[in-house]
Amino acid sequence: MNSPNTPQVVVVTGAGAGLGRAIVQSFARRGAHIGLVSRGQERLEDARREVESLGGKALVLPGDVADPQTLETAAAATEQTFGPIDVWVNDAMTTVFSPVHEMTPEDYKRVTEVTYLGFVYGTLAALKRMRQRDRGTIVQVGSALAYRSIPLQSAYCAAKHAMVGFTDSLRSELIHDGSHVRVTVVQMPAMNTPQFSWCKSNMQRKAQPVPPIFQPEVCAEAVYWAAHQHHREVFVGWPTVQAIWGFLDHYLARMAWDGQMLDAAHDPNQPIDLYEPVPGHQGAHGAFDNRSRTSSWEVQLTTRASWVATAGSALAGLAVRALTERGGHSRSNGHVAHRGSSDQASGFVPAQHVPADR
User: Fold this and answer.
1) Total domain count for the chain?
2) Catalytic option among 121, 156, 251, 275
């Protein structure tokens, strides 16, 4: 545990722009020392200056998360400069807007390497250090699309599905080992980030986030909150819950196709960040400020009602232990009850596991 006067040490991937940049700002306002990982040198230098202006310290760590050595080097450099890492946030992503039949194997490979394997490599780098100290938190930035895929983003949806499967396995192993290293997933709604201005697209119309759209700062605050709680999963905003629990394939086929596009032609000369970073300076926001929400009552309710979820999950853990012991099959040595709310989802919906067929 950090003392009140000891700054947290944090690593954020995808730190140069978009949600990652907003997450960096959120930790910097609390005086954190932050390792900034991204491909774009210019944006990382902007982020470093921003962190210092907000009262934190930053280390620029340029590199591609698709290369595992990038994350290992970043982890080592951060700890050498600032000390043991307290929080590791995996956020880097890329996507392609395209029907499946127009995708290429190379584009699938690239999206998978960044959006899924980048999370795996970052998690491995963090675990290597956190497990031996038996402390630390890994935050995986997820999406409503991790449970409910939509058309035109098959590569991204598949990568987010894979990330959830990987994280669930890891969480079970940490519980089995009685580890105090925590891992949580924050499932995001549509956000106003620059990705829609530079992602690769095979569509004739411009890409957009499916409304309602949230400003990245709303979601960044949820990440900061989740990093300091004991919840297995946090759903940000009612649209995320709707997408995970309520939307069916035929509905998405009708609504999510046009919902991801504007009534404007796609610029074929638009810069693309899939294989190389787009040069220039970029902040957290994209082109949809006038349509984006600056707050979420669902997030406020989630964070303020944390004690309810914690108490409920503790009772659930006791019930599970009682049932397993009654059946003579308890082999957890109390880990289910001990871990408490770390095994529960959090949101303004009741804390529970998402069904396996989602």
Assistant:
1) 1
2) 156
